[in-house]
Amino acid sequence: MRKLVFSLVAIFFSFHSNAQTTTFATETTDSLINVIAYFCKNDSLEYVMNEGKVNIEAGDTTISDRTEQRFRIVVLDSTSNGYKMELIPLSYEYEESGDKTEVAINKIAAATYKDFHTIFTTDEYGRIEHIENWKEIRDISNSATKRVCDSLYAMEPDMETYLPRKRFESLMKSMLSTENKILASYSELTMLFSCHGKAFPIGKKVADGTSESGYPQHTEVVASYGSYEEEYGFEDDFYVSFAAEESIPAKDAVDIVSNFVGIIIDKDLDTEAKDKLVDEAKSDMKRISVEDDYFFFNGWPCKVLKNDITEWEGVKKIKYSTIQWAKRSWGNFEQPSNTSPSKEL
Length: 345
Prior knowledge:
- By secondary structure, the chain is an alpha+beta fold.
- The chain has helices at about 1-15, 100-110, 135-155, 160, 165-175, 180-185, 185-195, 250-265, 265-280; strands at about 30-35, 45-55, 60-80, 80-95, 120, 130, 200, 205-210, 215-225, 240-250, 285-295, 300-310, 315-330.
- The strands form two sheets. Strands 6-5-4-3-2-13-12-11-10-9-8 form an eleven-stranded antiparallel beta sheet. Strands 1-7 form a two-stranded antiparallel ribbon.
- The longest helix is centred in the middle third of the chain and has 22 residues, at about 135-155.
């Protein structure tokens, strides 16, 4: 039950992460870094995304669910009002060893990955506004969810007794039922474009306040110019680094977890799980989010590193993600070029 609860907590927070929002004093233009997209029609960048999970408990460290995804982003059109772009999935690789549930999920994710061609639009700054084919993405996701459930419940028939399939499948589909929810599920897009349209004071800014959830939060933001890569970078490249730490009182943490768990598992087991949590939970839950964003001078993301950390009751869970460019093609006003730099990853 404990493993199940923490697995569900991970699902919950993956869809309910806090935005890194901080209010700063007014700055002059010269002391700000403005993240703006200066893209051209037919521009393209190919990226490699690595993800995984780390679990630390009682001195033991376990690394699991490691995946590598390759995808290309192409500018289909450029106007004074913004950009029309396409995310083209290229490959999905995963570890064959490890937790059989994760392997089963990744097997289906790999089989369906190339179906998720995504057309999206941004404003003139590069802020994502819409996913044009979100209904198509929703239908593909629903089909994949059914396949995942078919596999999981065939592999573990006892799951039905504590995690009714109908309820679980319904919850998973509801998380991808609207355009905004579809966009939120695209970690690659949110990681690459979440800074666009924002201005960051050069230097380090520290703030203490409350998170969007209303809990105490300490935030640090660092912004500076400088090339991330000596060989492929440029003098006017820049980066922005975020770190936020949120503390949730033990009682509230129990309520958050138990309320979510109660949505999908059997009612009697829900009561049992909550009673156990109330008895055992003595410490506050700590949530830490760290993100480093590196950009080329023209606003194309170069590399993004993100760690989401949850610490509670002696267990630390880390979800890490890294996106790094592998090939780029810029300034192709008429036809795409294959002569731009690339590197092996």
